[in-house]
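Final report, closing paragraph on structural work. Over the funding period we assembled a curated collection of sequence-structure pairs, and we close with a single example.
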Amino acid sequence: MITARPDVALMDGYHSPQLDVRVRLNTNESPEAPPQDWTDALAGAMRSIEWNRYPDREALELRRAIGGLHGVGPEQIFVANGSNEVLQTLLLTFGGPGRTAAVWEPTYALHSHISRITGTGVVEGERAEDFSTDLGEVARVISAARPEVSFLCSPNNPTGVVDDETTIREVLAMVEGVEGLLVVDEAYGQFAPWSATGLIADDVPVVVTRTFSKTWSMAAARLGYLIGPAWLVAELDKVVLPYHLDAFKQLAGTLALRDVDAMEARVQRLVAERSRVIDRLSALDLEVWPSGANFVLFRPRSRRGAEVWQQMVERSILVRNCSSWPRLDGCLRVTIGTTDEDDAFLDALEEIIA
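Its predicted structure, as stored:
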């Protein structure tokens, strides 16, 4: 009987526990549904889909709409089934056997996981003690390994730390020095005070990845994209499977982009709620990290994180146990939810910690 590739057989899959609970704050989804106007428009527009025909292979209308949002043409936009497929296509194109990707832990686990799935070697550095990007460590890793692809996640998942423009520019200069590619993962970019999209140019080896899952409240749609140099997007188009983006998804994304104001209003509500949650967490016996995303990382000082996580589950509240991630022993991550959801979480946590 055939077996999996030896390297795949030894891998652990990427899993986020899904339990039947009253309050679910573990997967960084938006707590709000998209506007009803979008739902109604999408339901009506579905009647125009020619279901017996393949979708637009280039997803041109959607790419134009996304490009308009960022002030670029469709030739600088690559769209896929969630930002994870964007990352996978990047690694299939610029990674692979004999090539290397660099990450700095703790960070988004799928950067390493997808790299390994595509046969790309992974070299790991570490972030600073406060989980910010350590430029000395970045220089050490890049000069020693000369990676083809380097990943920075900003705001970083699961820590919430945002890299400032000076830091990103310095890392980019190091990446250019080894003729590599810098991937800035901005899945939570709209929650942060600045974006690396302003660095993109046809002669600069940097791309920014985004998702519709968080701020656009469309996690169920699995839609993500990349902004980058036109020549790079053309290479990705060679690698991705034909007709990989279905007509329904293209329509959903295009319609969503007609209501940027509603998205930005949701973001502002979540940013304000994040501040409230951090204030209450900071009053407890916890180590709490500042966040530029829609989640907060914290570590109980006097209780084991796994024990606190279990007691939360017993109260029908689910947060993310990050204890198995590099350097995050005892850490938990909570997604910012509705005011009622957050109050239920905070009241339960205060009771447990007390």
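Residues 260-282 form the longest helix (23 residues). The CA atoms of residues 108 and 157 lie 5 Å apart. We thank the funder for supporting this effort.
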